[in-house]
Amino acid sequence: MNVKGIYLDCGSYAGGMATAEEIRNAILQFRKTGKPVTAYSGLYSELGYYIASACDKVICNPRGMLEIDGISSKFVMYKGLFDKLGVDFQVFRVGRFKSAVEPFTQTTMSEENRQQVTQYIKSLYEYQMGNIAMSRKLSKDTVWNIAMQGKAQRPADAKALGLIDALNYESDARKEAARACKLDSEKAKWFAFAKYAKDADPYPYSENKIAVIYAVGDILPGKQNPDEQIGSTSFIKTLHKAQNDPTIKAIVIRINSPGGSAYASDEMAHEIIACKKVKPVMISFGDVSASGGYYMGCVGDSIFALPNTITGSIGVFALLPNTQQLFGEKLGLNYETVELGELSAGWRPDRPLGEKERAVMQTMINEIYNDFLNTVAEGRHMSKSNVAALAEGRVYSAIDAKELHLIDDFGGINRAILAAARKSKITEYRVVSYPEQEDWLSQLLNKEEMAKTQWAMAAKASGLPIETIKEAEKIQHLVGPQYLLPWSVKMH
């Protein structure tokens, strides 16, 4: 083989936890060939170091830094801001732990929310520390204490504690990587992984195909924007294409979504159920597949997730703003309506809902929640009462979700592909992906890319974090009942 080893700069990795796990597993698999993997970085983020810890040797710049200092989940509470604007939110929800509405209705976290967040981030971090300890041949308690007390942020301390192997500059790190491969660093041919991946095809040509359909982002009705939204219309069109193609023997749906529109989630789940009657449909959960993401995935033949995937959040809410104070008292706007029928005007943002309107909305939310419970019960072959005991919007790590039968087994997307091949009884196949990746110019002109630029400009002008701008933008899309996770967890 031409590849003699890997030199990896993963320190600045800023992706999700489950994706980091898949990369780490790939490194461990590669090392079984006997070929060395050397990691180097000047700054190791939490997950960057987690990936690097799977390598044969970990090198850090002597003036660098390691962020091995625990895990946290940060929430921005918007209520104070909207109080100043004269906007309050009318909330309808089912589930003690369905806390997506809290930032708009409270200035502090509820105890139930704090309890569930503490439980699942501890589960995630204990798993991560355990794997680092195993790779670095340290005790789990030792690594846990290092992180909790922030003992390893300086490279020299990290080396003394056994978390890294050497302190060197990049040029010297490359020489060490070449020596590990028994090569002369000056004569060795270095090439980027992107080029290698483009040229290499892990699957031989076959008429049999397994389709991987990517469902990434918030769930909305209609068409989708790549990497940011799952549009139900676009998804269903793609699913039908794969379902009706006789050369495609099985389908893997890769879901990486915190959820969104209850209506759109249900539409997609309905089509997945229909597709299962034609050919196998396996589900692969990414970094987060919760609420609406879990809803659409729970109906597949089998669900695979990484241990540090975030999932669950079986619950529903609707959030309706009341702008009476802002429009009427502060801006002097007055709305006049001629109505025939008690509910003919529908929801009006310029006034609070009436008692009958609130009752109608809550009844609808209760019915949608009941549908969620029924869908999970049927999809996961559980009793409705058992699902109800796990629901109420509670979020789980996949470690806990597996014990609770919310997923079937641990594994990344390759595990789901193998399961799809096995269920369709094929041994030779190739993998095709939907949607196909756009070229760079199309991505540049994509509306979502333009939106990102606008978010960045708005953040710069206002002084607010870009995530706050994005959340404010997202509010206007929360039309109707939502299956939506209340937050995202990022490790720095």
Overview of the structural elements:
The protein has 20 helices and 18 strands. The strands form five sheets. Strands 6, 9, 11, 12, 13, 15, 16 and 17 form an eight-stranded mixed sheet that branches. Strands 1-2-3-5 form a four-stranded parallel sheet, with helices on both faces. The two termini are 36 Å apart. Strand 1 (6-8), helix 1 (17-31) and strand 2 form a beta-alpha-beta unit. Residues 437-455 and 487-492 have low confidence and may be disordered. The protein folds into two domains: 6-69 and 150-199, 2-enoyl-CoA Hydratase, Chain A, domain 1 (Alpha-Beta Complex); 209-318 and 352-436 and 447-484, 2-enoyl-CoA Hydratase, Chain A, domain 1. Helix 1 runs parallel beside helix 2 (46-52) and helix 19 packs across helix 20 (466-475). By secondary structure, it is α/β, with parallel strands linked by helices.
Structural class call reads alpha/beta
Distance between the termini: 36 Å
Mean pLDDT: 85
Q: Any idea how many domains?
A: 2
Q: Biggest β-sheet, characterized?
A: 8 strands, mixed
The DSSP helix count reads 20
The value of Rg in angstroms is 25 Å
Under CATH, the homologous superfamily of the largest domain reads 2-enoyl-CoA Hydratase, Chain A, domain 1
3D shape = globular
Strand content: 15-25%
Low-confidence stretches: 437-455, 487-492
Could you estimate the helical fraction of the residues in percent? 40-55%
Quick one: CATH class of the largest domain? Alpha Beta
The CATH architecture category of the largest domain equals Alpha-Beta Complex
The CATH topology annotation of the largest domain reads as 2-enoyl-CoA Hydratase, Chain A, domain 1
